[in-house]
TrEMBL record:
Xref: Pfam families: DAO
InterPro entries: FAD-dep_OxRdtase, FAD/NAD-bd_sf, G3P_DH_FAD-dep
Alphabetical UniProt keywords: FAD, Flavoprotein, Oxidoreductase
Class of enzymatic activity (EC top level): oxidoreductase
Gene3D superfamilies, per the entry: D-Amino Acid Oxidase, subunit A, domain 2, FAD/NAD(P)-binding domain
Protein name: Glycerol-3-phosphate dehydrogenase
EC numbers on record: 1.1.5.3
Required co-factors: FAD
Family affiliation: Belongs to the FAD-dependent glycerol-3-phosphate dehydrogenase family.
Native species: Halorubrum alkaliphilum
A GO term for molecular function: glycerol-3-phosphate dehydrogenase (quinone) activity
Amino acid sequence: MSDRPDSREPEVLVIGGGATGIGTARDLALRGVDVTVVDRGGLCSGTSGRSHGLLHSGARYAEADERGAAECIEENRILRRIAGAAIEDTGGLFVGLADDDADYFAEKRAACEAVGIPTETLDPDTAREAVPDLADDVERVMRVPDGVVYPSRLIAANALDAEAHGATIHPHAPVESITVEDGRVSAVALGGSVDGTVRPEYVVNAAGAWAGEVAAMAGLEVEMQPTRGVMVSVEYDGLGPVLNRCREPDDGDIVVPHGDEVVLGTTSVPVNDPDDYEQARWEVETSIEECAAMLPDVADAPVVREWWGVRPLYAPDEAERGGRGISRGFFRLDHAADGVDNAVSVVGGKLTTYRMMAASTADLVCDRLGVDAECETAERELVGADDPERLDEAITRFDGQGPTDVDVVGTAD
């Protein structure tokens, strides 16, 4: 919790302490807005902290979602500049096996070039110089600027920066009710660490997969279609680049390096309740089996840990596109159109594009509040970004440790 004196009448209340919520708070605070952030758990306790931790280059989406791919490569470059110890510059390989469609590989490469994502085509022998244990039937390889992001550190750095510019942060402060009067949110009752009522001028709903539940408290409808996905971390020392299977997105097509472990993932299964869903063994087994098609040694590697995450997907977009992995775009829903003038929900998106989502949301909020200030988050390095020890201390203070990077946080020299 922030050491700043409690404010029960902030200009902006941000609901959700994941990457987008904390990123929005940082952005607003840098623009001089008095902002308070609340989360029902510790920071990073939702989707952000339960991902596979891939810093997307955009290559995964290039042939199907040109705009999304362009956003990824832009934000990839920004995060490499501003996020310090929250990012690992590993590079990535897209790997085509003998049975994979060669035309799809060529299409993806051409799409990457069209979007501005740098690629380098490698022959399998050259690729094995970087990854000696690649499968024997690898026939096509393309290098792209993927990387690894440690979400606990990323969110802690954003939180430190937001605090440094006046934000108040309250983990373990669940929203209990939202009062709407005369077309405006007039009060938000909080439990837990706050146990009181705040009266903001504007409310940002950045609750991720739970955004629909938060919106419903204000009599609003935000249709979410969350999907679950499993991540499996196994012992494997020394993988350099991220590995991506170069085929239509499917279960078990990403291997993410984490020191002496690798994270295998993932699945995509619709769920009705982001707090109550099956954790099926077939998902673990499929992820291991499919990833082993690229990197055979992981098939029998000891499993260190498993975790599931829930994606905050926007139902109308999922229904329109009708396919797994086709879009991970974000949506900024201005609820003035729904009769509540001082509320916005931001849903969808990817961890890689959190800063862009936050900037778009902060632009709308500042417009509504009459704040004339530009976004600065792309140019300013995050507070503590180059001090892993400070970031890891902040993770403890904010109760912000997610399972994605538990093997990394606190191990820095």
